[in-house]
Amino acid sequence: xxxxxxxxxxxxxxxxxxxxxxxxxxxxxxxxxxxxxxxxxxxxxxxxxxxxxxxxxxxxxxxxxxxxxxxxxxxxxxxxxxxxxxxxxxxxxxxxxxxxxxxxxxxxxxxxxxxxxxxxxxxxxxxxxxxxxxxxxxxxxxxxxxxxxxxxxxxxxxxxxxxxxxxxxxxxxxxxxxxxxxxxxxxxxxxxxxxxxxxxxxxxxxxxxxxxxxxxxxxxxxxxxxxxxxxxxxxxxxxxxxxxxxxxxxxxxxxxxxxxxxxxxxxxxxxxxxxxxxxxx
Amino acid sequence: xxxxxxxxxxxxxxxxxxxxxxxxxxxxxxxxxxxxxxxxxxxxxxxxxxxxxxxxxxxxxxxxxxxxxxxxxxxxxxxxxxxxxxxxxxxxxxxxxxxxxxxxxxxxxxxxxxxxxxxxxxxxxxxxxxxxxxxxxxxxxxxxxxxxxxxxxxxxxxxxxxxxxxxxxxxxxxxxxxxxxxxxxxxxxxxxxxxxxxxxxxxxxxxxxxxxxxxxxxxxxxxxxxxxxxxxxxxxxxxxxxxxxxxxxxxxxxxxxxxxxx
Lengths: 281, 262
Description:
The complex is a heterodimer of chains A (281) and B (262). With 281 residues, chain A is an all-alpha fold. Chain A contains 12 helices and 2 strands; from the N terminus they run H-H-E-E-H-H-H-H-H-H-H-H-H-H. A two-stranded antiparallel sheet of chain A has the order 1-2. In chain A, a hairpin with a 2-residue loop joins strand 1 and strand 2 (70-71). Chain A is globular and about 55 Å long. The model of chain A has no long low-confidence stretch (mean pLDDT 86). Chain B has 262 residues and is α/β, with parallel strands linked by helices. Chain B is built from 9 helices and 9 strands. In chain B, the strands form 2 sheets. Chain B has a 6-stranded mixed β-sheet with strand order 5-6-7-3-8-9, with helices on both faces. Chain B has a 3-stranded antiparallel β-sheet with strand order 2-1-4. The A-B interface holds A 1-4, 6-8, 13, 16, 19-20, 23-24, 27, 30-32, 34-35, 107-108, 110-111, 113-118, 274-278, 280-281 and B 15, 53, 57-58, 62, 65-69, 83, 86-88, 90-93, 95, 97, 99-102, 104-107, 111, 115, 118-123, 126, 147, 167-170, 175-176, 200-202.
């Protein structure tokens, strides 16, 4: 019996895995739609949560006018752009942290491992939920207002920098999600710790890092490196109080921080999968 | 080498487990699940792997399919190193776990087959033909539009088998495929497996606790206990070791508990 030929180049395989991921997302969404009431309730819940989040941010800004010397414009930029980048990463990978732990705990990861497709892509595809796309959509106007009110003196270079900030931030948050997934291979019931890195990190990224005390600040550029997403590079875009004395080369370096993080996350993921222990028979 | 579907030398798996040794203190302890397995399986054969619970059968299968990394030893499946070439190997094998579904629970059965066609990148034309043949053989036609969650266990296992065969793998791993099946479903399943092995030359490696599966299907029996192969021989010569009035179940019981066979 002839078996079918499999594509061999790694680019072709990655592209195939990505397409498969999209198909699995659609399948997941159709499956969710089977339970219409729970689907509707989840959507309402997600929308409510987001509304509260936005309200809290506005209240803070309106009450104090400035945070750490940053006025409404730059603050909204920080909130909007980091929030948007986080929601992009969350929409596609966020659900996988919970799902990955569950697949490991139940041993269902076995089934994904014997399929000829990238494991991470399958986990991501299997974990997709439409409500995360909703959360992303509601963040878009916020990002646009933030960019509009930031007071950036626009030059072609700054447009490029802004795009780089967004792309890099998505990459950083995505890498953090994947790294959190890796923890599940050793501790599949430690969801809360993972959430501290991901959702906790996203909360931290919304504020000018210099308002935090010493050790939180250290955390924000080391263990949960969210300072690199928008705060550090933002000094290349506009003049805002800079009590930490961030230099232009530090800002530029932060712009490329996604690269080593994504590499680290993918190396770590491979290492973690090798240590998968499966369960039962 | 090329006509060996599976080839292992000294395949070994050690899990390190932490056990409580005080209020907080944990002791690290190594558990050897598979001690050192040498197994060669010729292409086209039908081999039954049996052994008591916790003997290391599943761990062995998981190392052969690229799910678990072996601690040491050499392993080749269809000429591939399972873990390193996981996705290449996965395209060429079919796996059915009796305890784990690979179908999409809430979607109509046919959707799972469509998704799996994309997983295995089978050309649409070939897939249509293969699937039609399998659906016919396993009598799944009326079930294709039903959500998987509404299928009975017997129906679902047939559906799982079709899912594992639709990309026409030359090697099929079955981990307790008849578990929980009623007599009618079990017999139908066996017929289908025998036919696939005979007509398509598909190599089949089956683990089971149901010795009548082995008796009806397998030409060769491998018995694993305490992570070792303790028997590996044709079924007929195994049965020759006991008096004719002793059945396979009793024979295997004696081997498991270490009783003399005669």
